[in-house]
Amino acid sequence: MLRKKTNGVARRPQRTTLLSEAANATVDRRAFLRGSGLAIGGLAAIAATGGAVKPASAAAGAVSGNVETIKSVCTHCSVGCSVVAEVSNGVWTGQEPGWDSPFNLGAHCAKGASVREHAHGERRLKYPMKKEGGEWKRISWEQAINEIGDGMTSIREESGPDSVYWLGSAKHNNEQAYLFRKFAAYWGTNNVDHQARICHSTTVAGVANTWGYGAMTNSYNDIHNSKAIFMIGSNAAEAHPISLLHILKAKEENNAPVIVCDPRFTRTAAHADEYVRFRPGTDVALVWGILYHIFENGWEDKEFIRTRVWGMDQIRDEVAKWTPEEVERVTGTPGEQLRRVAKTLANNRPGTVIWCMGGTQHTNGNNNTRAYCVLQLALGNMGTTGGGTNIFRGHDNVQGATDLGVLSHTLPGYYGLSNGAWGHWARVWGEDPEWLAGQFGSITGADGKEKSLQNLTGIPVSRWIDGILEEKDNMDQNDNVRAMVLWGHAPNSQTRQVEMKTAMEKLDMLVVIDPYPTVSAVLHDRTDGVYLLPACTQFETRGSVTASNRSLQWRDKVVDPLFESKTDHEIIGLLAKKFGFADRFFRNIEMEDEVTPNVESVTREFNSGLWTIGYTGQSPERIKLHMANQHTFDRTTLKAVGGPADGDYYGLPWPCWGTADMKHPGTPNLYDMSKSVADGGLTFRARFGVERDGDNLLAEGVYSKDSEIKDGYPEFTMQMLMDLGWDGDLTADERAAIDAVAGPKTNWKTDLSGGIQRVAIKHGCAPFGNAKARAVVWTFPDPVPTHREPLYTPRRDLVADYPTYEDRKFYRLPTMYASIQKNDFSKDYPIILTSGRLVEYEGGGDETRSNPWLAELQQDMFVEIHPRDANNLGVRDGSQVWVEGPEGGKVKVMAMVTERVGEGVAFMPFHFGGHFQGQDLRAKYPEGADPYVLGESCNTAQTYGYDSVTQMQETKSTLCKIMPA
Ligand code: SF4
User: Fold this and answer.
1) Please, what are the domains in the chain?
2) What residues form DSSP beta bridges with 836?
3) Is residue 16 over pLDDT 60?
């Protein structure tokens, strides 16, 4: 289908030629697209719609040659690169990278450089469709909303609100993500979640439980100050390409050694000074193997540990077991190499630690993330510029969607699901808490008492298929999931595709809301009950987006919604109206029409409630001011030097404390005590009490600059202000607002005036207290991070020493561990299977495989096999092979024979879909909406396995067998 372009003609001259022609002639939209090289089959798709699809608004208008530039943000990863779109008469004609952006400095990777084609995408869904009698039929929005709404209402009446699952998206902007979580609350379920569950949930849980907040502590730019860069499970060169700008700057200017630990010699590893290969699934053993040398040689930062860390002695006891010999036995990495790594880290401080999904997607992923944190605590690398844990998030707004609470275990701002948390949000929404509670179902607990499902964590996205397939008597809800809404979610990014197909076929109703049909449209053999609703891309609306470093940026709308697509917030409005709660849902929000909320007004509503993480100071006006003045921000510190945002940090990285009027500048590096809190400094959060086993959990005699309390202190409450004699600093309005919540018991998280935060900061204190980080999380299954063999391990000799967990039930579902690991699959499935990203594609790949410029670059799904394995199996490079997992799922892919992987390890990328167990599903897509490139999803061969705290899926260490096809 695709042809390699060989003439090498750059796009820019093509567009210039086109525009100069356009200045003298009338050019319609088709001519624009054809002239810009886009018309690869896409125009036929338009024709196939019967010609009734709404063209871009400028299609019939004359092109004047006037080009308007509009600033937006790339939609393909969390680096947050600025895109400057060139728009002529409403048609997006060209694009440039943002040269002023401190994040990308005029650079783009292939994905960012081709986002125009993503928005204009000829392979998009163009109008609502429904599958009826095995055929896709075009329907109106009105019919779609009515039928979907009526169907869901029936399911709700028969089975309760939890039988409808709302799967949201890291592609939504912050405003849409917030409305989505609020919508699930008004519908009456916690069966709501999004991709963060399956990319960094173990990071969020592990990191937040170590020192307070579950996010990247520093920034891409702050890496400029690093003296060493330690990367584990991160292939940033492909997953976050522009981050390499910052990493390589430190490597060149600071002579910072780059250490890359990965089972696979990645493109990132190619930049490393030290490449450490280790067996997939042994991160804890590897990190303890490094820490072993640090402790043995006394290289740890003893004063930092004494004053700011609790529990390091227990870590020391565990690490002592990880002698170089034992580490080599478990990880395969020579002890001498790890001694060299330890010495490098000790001699080059501060260093940063970077990790991604190679570390998070494991049954013990929360142990991995905490082990990485402990390494940094031991070295004293936290709370300092150049140090920190720089955790690179995946999707462009996965940080924001996580912060806004599109998760089955929290409300926006990580408020949890307790009655107190619901009470807080009911106050923000102006809602009657009784009415809200009445929307939810209940179950009878083991003690015979009724329990509201409002307070019980919902089913996570990793397990929605079990919500459909599990025996309902085994679940902590009244009935199975009967309707699925996949709203901006690629199902092929999830494991167990064979069971997913069965689950999709068992549903009463499957609703897909997305700019593209996604694999959800074709994986199953359903003939009825499937709806595809076309959502806009982020270039057809406006709103805020949070980059991995916690900075908020604003996207302006580039073009009006194309075809019959609607913005996600309008679709939420349509459903709220259909279900009869639109008036109360939008009661505090300005509306642009009956169902479309004003985006800025939504920002202001979440500003008024997200006190926990300081999403309160980033008003739309402040974020827009930063976007308009990007050039005034320093490219390393991110601080504005003069200009209208003087003193602010770019994008007001959260926490941006207090109200916008307080003008807090944002917090560039978390837990940095060398700055006052008013200027972005911070302490570790006092989140876990003040005492443990008789030990003081608060900081020992250390505090942030300008703090009037010269020691550790707990989180602020109104009572604490009164005890300190600082309550007189509150205004009368603040005092009234505090009294209206809980009087002296009101704390910094529930005070809707922001007065408690303001006064604490006025006295130099962090509203959330000043405590030690905890190296031991006593509330987790493994308080001290522990190595545990994967469920599907080839190392049967290690199972007795390092067994997995016992089976248990959490997040409403039975979850298997030991009952899988007790079986030896390694004889029949001897090769370890791992997965990862490619630079050309993103996520499940529907958007990027539908983009002609990207699709051209990578047309075949493949598996990497070591030459020794390939030769032993009789597999030649470029030949077709079957890769089969121990649960029976198998994929037919091309073999790439390469030493990138070690012996006994195979790697597959996870962006492909549209083939299933050797079958090409292209004919099942709606006509003209099939991605250019299809291929097997690696997750068809991937297996069961979920993190012991968050239900993160295991995709990095399972087993397979490979056979010539
Ligand atoms: Fe930048 Fe990421 Fe977009 Fe590439 S995909 S241009 S690195 S934001």
Assistant:
1) 43-120 (2.20.25.90), 129-197+398-607 (3.40.50.740), 201-391 (3.40.228.10), 796-964 (2.40.40.20)
2) 909
3) no
